[in-house]
Design brief:
Layout lengths: L2 H10 L5 E5 L3 E2 L39 H4 L2 H9 L2 E4 L6 E6 L2 H10 L4 E4 L4 E6 L5 E5 L2 E4 L5 E2 L9 E2 L2 H6 L10 H4 L16 H16 L5 H16 L7 H13 L4 H15 L2
Parallel strand pairs: 6-10
Antiparallel strand pairs: 1-2, 1-3, 3-9, 4-6, 4-8, 5-6, 7-8
Helix pairs in contact: 7-8, 7-9, 8-10
């Protein structure tokens, strides 16, 4: 068993979902069919593609705590060639503040609550309990890695882990932000198929939206796919009769964005679901 595989199995046993890294700190495609990004993921394998081996097979979404998957033949070749181990902080309920230089570390010591720290090649990782949307370059030398992102595993670190503070969440808020504007999120038409509503009370729809929000919120892996399937389920039930309003779709988009999806991802998933259903 390789050292990296042993590390992956060890941290997975503690609820931290690992994935193998190749040279350059970039994830593998975890099966030969995904070599050289053949399955359609984004450049450098950092964003999952549409493949099913298993889907998605690479990027942050490949991280898992399932020992059988980590130790499977599908991953075996990647562990043999791995240059390191990464993990999905959001999947472990964590947020990593990646401080890339001494100036960033000095800022954190002055501005953020003390928490567990892990030394890196050029700086430190400060790890908090709680998840949020990931964001790069929130200030000079500072990235936030949580949902839909991976971080290198460099050891457990030292110090007590503190709850995710508002000061870190605020760093990811950009004003003005088109990614969170309702007009952009709701640019897809909703009323093309209005007709007689078969639902006797609004309670049926409200319960369905609440269940859809919960399904998205509880997704720990394959968030892209979960959001799309949830949108598809909602539209298949309520998309033809005109029940859905912008308030309902805003609730779904908000739940998806809380898991790290952008408004563009939400709109694309919604449009694809409409197209699939012929709406």
């Amino acid at each position: 068993m390789s050292t990296h595989l042993h590390t992956a199995l060890s941290i997975a046993a503690h609820g931290v979902p690992p994935l193998p890294l190749r040279v350059g700190k970039v994830p593998f495609g975890n099966c030969p069919a995904c070599a050289k990004n053949a399955c359609g993921g984004r450049p450098n394998m950092k964003t999952p593609g549409p493949c099913t081996c298993p889907a998605p097979c690479h990027g942050w979404a490949a991280a898992t705590t399932d020992r059988n998957v980590i130790n499977s033949r599908t991953w075996a070749w990647a562990w043999r060639e791995a240059a390191g181990v990464a993990y999905h902080p959001g999947g472990a309920g964590l947020t990593v503040v990646d401080l890339d230089n001494p100036a960033a570390i000095a800022w954190a010591r002055e501005s953020l609550p003390a928490t567990r720290t892990v030394p890196t090649t050029r700086g430190e990782h400060w790890i908090y309990r709680g998840t949020m949307q990931s964001a790069n370059a929130v200030r000079p030398g500072v990235d936030i890695k949580s949902l839909m992102q991976y971080a290198r595993w460099l050891g457990p670190g030292t110090g007590a882990m503190a709850p995710l503070p508002a000061a870190v969440r605020t760093l990811a808020v950009k004003e003005p932000s088109t990614a969170r504007r309702t007009p952009q999120a709701l640019s897809v038409p909703l009323s093309a198929h209005r007709g007689e509503c078969p639902h006797r009370t609004p309670t049926y729809l409200d319960r369905g939206i609440a269940m859809a929000e919960q399904r998205i919120t509880e997704a720990r892996e394959a968030v892209h796919a979960t959001v799309y399937r949830t949108f598809l389920a909602v539209l298949s039930t309520h998309g033809r009769c005109g029940c859905l309003t912008e308030t309902h779709t805003a609730r779904l988009f908000t739940a998806a964005q809380a898991k790290g999806e952008t408004a563009r991802h939400c709109t694309d998933a919604w449009t694809n679901a409409l197209t699939t259903l012929g709406l």
